[in-house]
Amino acid sequence: MTVGTTGLAAVLLLVSLLLPDRPDLLAPAAFLRLPAEAVLLAALLLVLPGRARRTGAAALGVLIGLVTVVKCLDIGFYSVLFRPFDPVLDWGLLGNAADYLRETSGRSAELAAIAGAVLLTVAVLVLTTGATLRLTTLLARHRARSVRGTLVLGTAWFTCVLFGLHSAGQPVAATLDADILGDRAQQVRASLADARLFRRQAAVDAFAHTPPDRLLTGLRGKDVLFTFVESYGRSAIEDPAMAPQIDAVLKESSAGLAAAGFGARSGWLRSPVTGGGSWLAHATFLSGLWISNQQRFRSLTSSDRTTLTGAFRKTGAWRTVGIVPGVLTAWPEGRFFGLDHVHDGRHLAYRGPDFGWSQVPDQFALETFRRTELARRGRGPLMAEIVLTSSHYPWAPLPRLVDWQDLGDGSVFRPVRRAGRSQEEVWRTPENVRTAYRTSIAYALRCLVQFLRRYGDANTVLVFLGDHQPVPTVTGNSPRKDVPVTIVARDPRVLDRISGWGWTEGLKPAANAPVWPMDGFRDRFLTAYGPRLSGRGMPPARSGTPPGGSHGPDAPRRG
Fold this sequence. Notes:
Layout: H1 2-18, E1 34-35, H2 36-47, H3 50-81, H4 91-105, H5 107-141, H6 143-163, E2 166-167, E3 170-171, E4 173-174, H7 176-202, E5 223-229, H8 234-238, H9 243-259, E6 263-270, H10 278-287, H11 294-301, H12 308-315, E7 319-324, H13 333-336, E8 341-344, H14 362-374, E9 382-388, H15 414-419, H16 423-426, H17 430-455, E10 460-466, H18 472-475, E11 482-489, H19 492-496, E12 504-505, E13 515-517, H20 521-528
Parallel strand pairs: 1-4, 5-9, 5-10, 6-13, 7-8, 7-9
Antiparallel strand pairs: 2-3, 6-11, 6-12, 10-11
Helix pairs in contact: 1-5, 2-3, 2-6, 3-5, 4-5, 5-6, 7-11, 9-17, 14-17
């Protein structure tokens, strides 16, 4: 029993030290390596005197446990956001993950997950500490043999380094935990300094003092709709598993819009996030600042920054509204973004079923906008921020298009919901997930194009874009963060204003179309649709994009 317990303790510590921090590296070969940390810790414990040895063993056991917990968090973050956990900035996202579970699986599932996470964390810390103490006692009891064994293992480790031995693409001589601790130390320093960096970036605002009568003069009298299509990323257009079907939808939609007299131009934007964090991408697009974490978002929304939507309100020439079905609680940020009125998920008069995370099908959200805003008698020009959520993770079950005249209060979607595939069924294989994602994007695009063809006119300008790439299960761990962006209008003068952007004609951006950081769109748009003065160029170039991109479960129910 003692030998078996000691063996289990050794295996536990070995697994903890060799556990990868990325899901794509989780394989048996990852544990067939020699961790330098084990050799160094054994040597350290052998040279310490008795009482200090036991105290040191307990401290090292806790440290190994904490690093193991961090690696588990990394695996989760890489699975959704394709980046590691940030120990300074990401604690709030754990709350968002709990909210997501509650909204998709119920309160019981949320509480069970929280309890399980807490118990697992405590168990890891207790077990790694106990295992370290047990092995330390064994080392002290057989000191001479332990010294020889440590020297042999150290020699073996250096030999593996010298000859560059690898197993399944990974070096046999591992320094995984040491590397993680070093990377985290740098990450913590960068995250702590991020607030100061952001304040300097936010101090530069090319349109802070622009008089209202000189803003958006090229769009006066138009209804301007900024529409975010959840998770509509470059992979939907270029991944071979999805591109043919989405390409067919875009070609069909482009032809239908052209027949209705609409023109379109498309390009690419680089999002600050991938896999999730929609609200950060929305804020980046609207504010002209790189909003890659919650700390930046809070700083932004407590400032007086001129946002793209706020610029419309500032002119006094538009009523500004938001259609945000994902918002189910109070959302004071709506005022910051310059919205006169917010139609949130509680006030869309929807009486149908939800579809996974998405409470309201895109078709119904668009119809609600038409009914409550576009169809109002005697109204003036509108600016709307519209968020379409049907393509939100986990893409199960999915709605489908119904006759617009049959939408009613949404009850028509009940049989659609019952016939849909469950989340458990879809997520059995990556192929099922990609198919469901592709179907959701096709649905969102068709809803938007049908809406524009039915209710758009010569004074309608639609700007629609993805907010971020989907999760790595769909993208195949692609590092690209590009999303499509398109401007559609029937008035040719609207598209003439962006003729110098180099965008592609139609709804599908070419592979070589320009890729701009998402925080650069605000200034380009306000410049293109501002007064045309001889010799006037772009406002001073300033991008808050940090070198190397961004830090980073999706979107919180804002509030």
